[in-house]
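pinned: reference chain
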Amino acid sequence: MPPRGHALLGAANAHRWLICTRSARLEEQFPDQGSSFAAEGSLAHELAELKLRQYFTTELTKRTCTTRHNKIKKNELYQPEMETNSDTYLEYVKELAMAYPATPFVAIENKIDFSAYVPEGFGTADCIIIGGDKMHVIDFKYGKGVPVSAEENPQMMLYALGALNRYAMLYAVNTITLSIVQPRIDNMSSWDITPDRLYSWAAEYVQPRAKLAYAGEGDFAAGEHCRFCKARAQCSERAVHDFCEIEQKYNPDITPALLSDSDLGDLLRRAEPFKRWLEDVQNYALSAVLDGKSIPGWKAVEGISRRKFDDVDAAFADLTAAGIQETLLYERKPLTLAAVEKLLGKQQFNELCGAHVIKPVGKPTLVPESDKRPAYSPAAADFENIETK
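pinned: its structure tokens
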């Protein structure tokens, strides 16, 4: 796996520094803290890369692949569902490759350079496929919190820009397809763009804003892109922005006793960014107090704790020694669908019990109208349940 490194103006955070040009330099003050989610995603990427290399290249022997696979499985963050999700990604890439009239060129975990438009700009594209005049740029997303769309996605567009820069001398590309594969939430998104349009976007929009961002100039601009900014909890621009969003003044002489559905809808819309901001501030304040800093008016206390065995095996050994039957101490539980699929393999799983697999309607969730998912209809859901039964 090639070293990834981190560019100041990386493709992954382009959606932020393109809008809030001063955020890139502001984030430099904060260390990379990482998270278990990021580490889990990196491990899933490593597994997905291994499977693609094993299928599309001859650079790894079967023994090497087995050794690397076993090493991944020994990682404490490994979960059996990683196999199914990485297989979904592999099958997606295979289908794209097989759709070309002739065997295409496939680049895996390819370091690309877009510094012609972004100072010191580089990144690593998960997969690039080129054949004839068509190029695919595919990104594997392991997160399941937020659906990611390929449409006008700046990260993917910068990857495509770098891929064109690297392979334009070898291939006369006329059509570029950007694809997001997010298997944990069944999100497969694709979007087409021409090289001319991509170059125009880069020259007219990216280049001037990247110049400002690199110099730490331009404006602060708060919004949805603040979600993963390192400075999100302490950024004064975000605080002002989100307080302004939630502020709502009513004239007591004309305001009714009860808010209308329209008023509630407006307040929910205004409160959404404020709620996320407040949560970020609370998390920062707790970490600061635990690190020995003082947040005036606040302190950390011990949360609710639940009893547990210090050693389950030792406790159960004492119970069985006292005459308690083991059958009373254990519950028999079926394997999950993902575990059974892993046990049998995808093909045998589909052959033997695929007919029993259903996808129930998810629990209704309130989201802004801008969310790309279709609106939930209770009547349609009831009808679908009847059809399923």
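why pinned: The chain has three domains: 14-215, 232-251+261-290, 312-356. Residues 312-356 form one domain.
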